[in-house]
Design a protein that fits this description.
The complex is a heterodimer of chains A (258) and B (311).
Chain A: E1 15-24, E2 27-37, E3 42-46, H1 53-60, E4 68-73, E5 76-77, H2 85-90, E6 92-95, H3 107-117, H4 123-136, H5 152-164, E7 170-174, H6 182-197, E8 202-205, H7 209-215, E9 218-223, E10 226-231, H8 233-238, H9 243-254
Parallel strand pairs in A: 3-8, 3-9, 6-7, 7-8
Antiparallel strand pairs in A: 1-2, 1-4, 4-5, 9-10
Helix pairs in contact in A: 3-4, 3-5, 5-6
Chain B: H1 8-14, H2 36-72, H3 77-84, H4 87-127, H5 134-149, H6 152-166, H7 175-201, H8 204-212, H9 217-232, H10 234-247, H11 259-270, H12 274-306
Helix pairs in contact in B: 4-5, 4-7, 4-10, 4-11, 4-12, 5-7, 6-7, 7-9, 7-10, 8-9, 10-12, 11-12
Chain lengths: 258, 311
């Protein structure tokens, strides 16, 4: 397993956050967050509910405006107010906990919407590529179905295909298995594993500790609005340095989730 | 074994596994023989349904008889019958009223389209963000506030009677065109609110998903929010169109010869009110198909929602 530290050359971070602060009304969700994501690595954000994992991802995609600090994508500061936010979002794919598929469109239309409307790809080409991706994820027969005819696992895989269809530089996965029935979690995680093997740079907020330990190059434990502990999966799960990390992991183990 | 009509909907919902619910399409071929318990249950339900039908028929009969007696035995009935329900004047008025109705139908079609377009534009204007659009937003809000509050009849009088009084060059004095304009002005305000409610009912996560794919605000509105909003608002929109359909009768105040005005002319000559009744019934007959269609669309959408569909 390669860590950001020992990957040679051209490992300028894809995503970098520095001193990010984000509050909602009176509550401080992110107090002072720093993060670096090297190319072709997987970063897992772990932490209790409400620790700010989802908020961090939404800030990285500019769906939320940060209060302070800065975020860079491929060395470009995207929190500069002069930046074209739509252009930034085109380079980042997002998969949501609740899938957020468009219910009035077929699977194929869901996937080809952005390539066609945003990237100017022709319908034929976009559909051909979408069908290819669906085929690879075992959804070949579902292209013309509407989302409400699919199982949760299938919907989430479609959502992943939709995010991939624009060939993003970075993929953000926000608790993508949290809304799934337990027996459907595996098929979605398998897809993420496949993407890792292909070298996709990913940041995922997750409660699936086993999966995080398995697939992540870097694990960040969020607590109290900061990244309290970061390291390789072995370091964070095997030998946590912080008392709060230890307590969190103990609770996870007690709940039988690790 | 199908449950008697009227009962079937409710019963079908109670026992989903029961094949008489009828959504499964066909009986499974697994050698199942209905148990005595089920047959007894169905016998009881049939008997209960028969009893309900009998009671309904009887009570309808009694109600109609009572109403008839009350009206017919009223002291003024013979006179009322002559002035409101004269067969002679009904025959005379009917063709004229139908002729006038053609104008109402044309008004409905043209105003209907204009109202949908204008209503949509206003609704979208109200949801635009950004400082550039501030005046547009305010204007759209003021428009809906004003025209929803202004009684249609007053609006019509101002436009149909007031505009010609200005004697502006090149501006029409045609009461049909002006009446149609007034109807469009008022109904666009209602329809804009219906569209706006639809837009706001779409969960923000849909917009977030669209924006995170790199779609601009406008593209997200056009491809993701509006199609869902419009679909969701079809029943209230149809309801407003039914309402518009009958309100086209109000253009008669400007002198346009529609169904109401056609009746009016005969009433003025004969001092018999039967033509009004004829015109009223014709309007009702015209709106009933539309109302039924609205109900049908609404029921179909409710059913889809109940089945777990998101639309």
């Amino acid at each position: 397993m390669s860590t950001p530290e020992n990957t040679p050359v051209s490992n300028a971070p894809v995503l970098r956050m520095e001193s990010v602060r984000k509050t909602f009304g009176g509550s401080v969700v992110l107090r002072d967050v720093g993060l670096e994501v090297a190319p072709h690595t997987v970063t897992a954000l772990i932490g209790a509910s409400g620790s700010g994992k989802s908020t961090l991802l939404r800030c990285a995609n500019l769906l939320e405006e940060i209060d302070d600090g800065a975020i860079w994508l491929d060395g470009e500061e995207i929190t500069d107010p002069r930046v074209d936010q739509d252009a930034v979002r085109r380079r980042i794919g997002v998969v949501f906990q609740a899938y957020n598929l468009f219910p009035h469109m077929t699977v194929l239309d869901n996937i080809t919407l952005a390539p066609r409307r945003v990237h100017g790809v022709s319908r034929t080409e976009a559909e051909e590529r979408a069908r290819g991706l669906l085929e690879r994820l075992g959804l070949g027969g579902k292209a013309d179905a509407y989302p409400d005819r699919l199982s949760g696992g299938q919907q989430q895989r479609v959502a992943i295909v939709r995010a991939l269809a624009v060939r993003p530089r970075l993929l953000l996965l926000d608790e993508i298995t949290a809304a799934l029935d337990p027996e459907l979690v595996g098929e979605v995680l398998e897809v993420v594993r496949g993407l890792k093997d292909e070298g996709m740079t990913m940041v995922l907020a997750t409660h699936e500790m086993g999966f995080a330990r398995d697939v992540a190059d870097q694990v960040c434990f969020l607590d109290g609005g900061v990244v309290l502990e970061r390291g390789t999966a072995e370091q964070v799960f095997g030998d946590p340095q912080q008392e709060r990390t230890r307590r969190f992991l103990r609770r996870i183990v007690e709940a039988g989730r690790l | 074994m199908t449950v008697t009509k009227g009962e079937s909907a409710r019963e079908g919902a109670d026992d989903k596994g029961d094949m008489s619910g009828g959504t499964g399409g066909g009986v499974p071929d697994d050698g199942y023989v209905p148990s005595e318990r089920r047959l007894a249950r169905e016998r009881y339900r049939r008997a209960r349904a028969r009893r309900a039908t009998a009671v309904a028929a009887l009570s309808t009969l009694v109600t109609v008889a009572l109403l008839y007696l009350v009206v017919v035995s009223a002291p003024g009935w013979p006179r009322t019958k002559e002035t409101f329900f004269s067969a002679h004047y009904a025959r005379e008025a009917f063709p004229k009223v139908l002729e006038g109705l053609w104008l109402n139908v044309r008004l409905l079609l043209i105003c209907g389209v204009a109202v949908l377009v204008l209503g949509m534009l206003i609704a979208v204007a109200r949801t635009l963000r950004g400082p550039v659009f501030f005046p547009l937003r305010v204007l759209a809000a003021a428009y809906t506030d004003f025209f929803r509050g202004l009684p249609l009849i007053i609006n019509l009088m101002i436009v149909v009677l007031g505009v010609p009084a200005l004697r502006l060059q090149g501006v029409t004095v045609d009461p049909v065109l002006l009446g149609g304009t007034a109807l469009t002005l008022t109904y666009s305000a209602y329809v804009a609110e219906v569209f706006r409610a639809g837009i706001e009912s779409i969960h923000p996560s849909q917009r977030a998903a669209a924006r995170s794919l790199g779609l601009t605000n406008r593209q997200a509105l056009r491809h993701v929010v509006l199609p869902q909003a419009v679909r969701r608002q079809v029943p209230p929109l149809l309801n407003d169109l039914v309402s518009l359909q009958k309100d086209t009768g109000l253009v008669s105040i400007g002198g346009a010869v529609d169904a109401v005005r056609a009746a009016d002319i005969i009433v003025g000559r004969s001092l018999n009110y039967t033509p009004y009744i004829v015109a009223g019934l014709v309007f009702v007959a015209l709106t009933i198909p539309m109302t039924r269609f609205t109900d049908w669309v609404t029921a179909r959408m409710d059913r889809r929602r109940a089945q777990g569909g998101s639309l």
